[in-house]
């Protein structure tokens, strides 16, 4: 009887030890490859976000790992839908070493996203890591809001025995955006398609939501007429441009008398003047048409009178 009791308790003890019920807290799990950290870099475009995810993997074991692979995906925490997924092979990792793997993929929509990384050894999941990110589109720099309003021309004096003339060209500038500095004002006097006189000056400061005037003094031949082209540039890029509406005969302007001209924004269509004489000519009847009508009317009247006389 004692032997049976001893065998019974021995079987229970053996079962408890083998199943881990005894000294379970003292028994350590065998180490395995782990994901130590995850870095996420984002780059926004017009509608999509490009994610560069770097996963750092560590092998704390005393032996080499099996074949390792990573699966990275983004998940919308509100809808639980997967936005993108990527898989990368790592290969074997030596004992006590670490490595990293980067992958890039596109997320079609911003907002809150959860980056989830899973580490597999021989296709068996060994570790997982998740981190939330907020995908926000980069704010684009506000484009300078510069407009050219009008053009003031003032002749100063005639030089070179009356052949040349010195003129002040002063375009009006409206800045309804942020304050700007170091803008370049470029003015070109065009007398014909092959003859152009260009000068430039620096606008040191254009205050926000203010009007100002640029000014440039030019020397050009006195007897020609000119159309002035104006451009405001920033670091070589043209912010706005316009041209005078008419060709200006500088020799006819009074000295030291400013005259204001209208500017046309570059690229705006030019309405050609309607030739009123052509319209009048079209409205007039063709030569001889009136005489023919009178002759036909007379013949018709003569026929009517003749029929009455016969009756």
Protein topology:
Blueprint: H1 2-19, E1 34-44, E2 49-58, E3 68-75, E4 82-91, E5 98-107, E6 111-121, E7 124-135, E8 146-159, E9 164-175, E10 180-192, E11 195-206, E12 210-213, E13 216-221, E14 225-234, E15 237-244, E16 248-249, E17 259-265, H2 276-283, H3 289-310
Antiparallel strand pairs: 1-2, 2-5, 3-4, 3-6, 6-7, 8-9, 8-17, 9-12, 9-13, 10-11, 10-14, 14-15, 14-16, 15-17
Element order: H for helix, E for strand: HEEEEEEEEEEEEEEEEEHH
Rg computed from alpha carbons, rounded to a whole number of angstroms? 44 Å
**What is the level 1 CATH name of the largest domain?**
Mainly Beta
- Sequence stretches where pLDDT stays below 50 over 5 or more residues: 22-28, 276-280
Percent in helix? 10-25%
Strand content: over 45%
Give the full name of the CATH homologous superfamily of the largest domain.
Answer: Immunoglobulins
Number of helices: 3
* Shape label: elongated
Here the CATH topology of the largest domain equals Immunoglobulin-like
CATH architecture of the largest domain, by name, is Sandwich
Tell me briefly what this model is.
Helix content is 15%, strand content 51%.
Please provide a written account of the structure:
The chain folds into two domains: 106 residues, Immunoglobulin-like (Sandwich); 120 residues, Immunoglobulins (Immunoglobulin-like, Sandwich), CATH 2.60.40. The protein is 15% helix and 51% strand. The protein has three helices and 17 strands. Strands 8, 9, 10, 11, 12, 13, 14, 15, 16 and 17 form a ten-stranded antiparallel β-sheet that branches.
Give descriptors for this structure.
311 residues, alpha+beta, Immunoglobulin-like, 2 domains, 10-stranded antiparallel β-sheet, 4-stranded antiparallel β-sheet, 3 helices, 51% strand, elongated
């Amino acid at each position: 009887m004692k032997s049976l009791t001893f065998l019974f308790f021995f079987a229970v003890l053996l079962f408890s030890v083998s199943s881990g019920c005894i000294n379970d807290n003292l028994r350590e799990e065998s180490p395995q490859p782990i994901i130590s950290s995850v870095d996420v870099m984002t780059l926004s475009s017009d509608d999509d976000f490009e994610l560069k995810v770097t996963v750092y993997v560590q092998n704390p074991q005393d032996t080499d790992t099996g074949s390792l692979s990573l699966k990275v995906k983004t998940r919308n925490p509100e809808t639980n839908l997967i936005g993108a997924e990527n898989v990368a092979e790592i290969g074997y990792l030596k004992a006590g070493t670490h490595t990293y793997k980067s992958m890039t993929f596109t997320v079609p929509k911003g907002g809150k996203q959860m980056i989830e990384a899973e580490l597999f050894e021989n296709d068996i999941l060994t570790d997982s890591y998740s981190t939330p990110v907020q995908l926000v589109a980069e704010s684009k720099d506000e484009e300078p809001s510069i407009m050219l309003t009008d053009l003031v021309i003032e002749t100063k004096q005639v030089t070179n025995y009356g052949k040349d003339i010195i003129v002040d060209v002063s375009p009006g500038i409206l800045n309804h955006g942020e304050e700007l500095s170091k803008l370049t004002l470029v003015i070109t006097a065009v007398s014909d398609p092959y003859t152009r006189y260009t000068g430039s000056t620096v606008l040191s400061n254009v205050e926000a939501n203010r009007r100002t005037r640029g000014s440039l003094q030019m020397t050009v031949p006195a007897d020609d007429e000119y159309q002035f082209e104006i451009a405001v540039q920033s670091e070589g890029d043209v912010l706005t441009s316009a041209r005078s509406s008419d060709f200006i005969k500088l020799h006819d302007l009074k000295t030291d008398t400013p005259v204001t001209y209208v500017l046309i924004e570059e690229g705006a269509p030019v309405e050609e003047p309607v030739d009123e004489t052509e319209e009048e000519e079209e409205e007039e009847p063709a030569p001889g048409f009136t005489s023919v009508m009178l002759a036909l009317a007379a013949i018709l009247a003569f026929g009517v009178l003749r029929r009455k006389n016969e009756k």
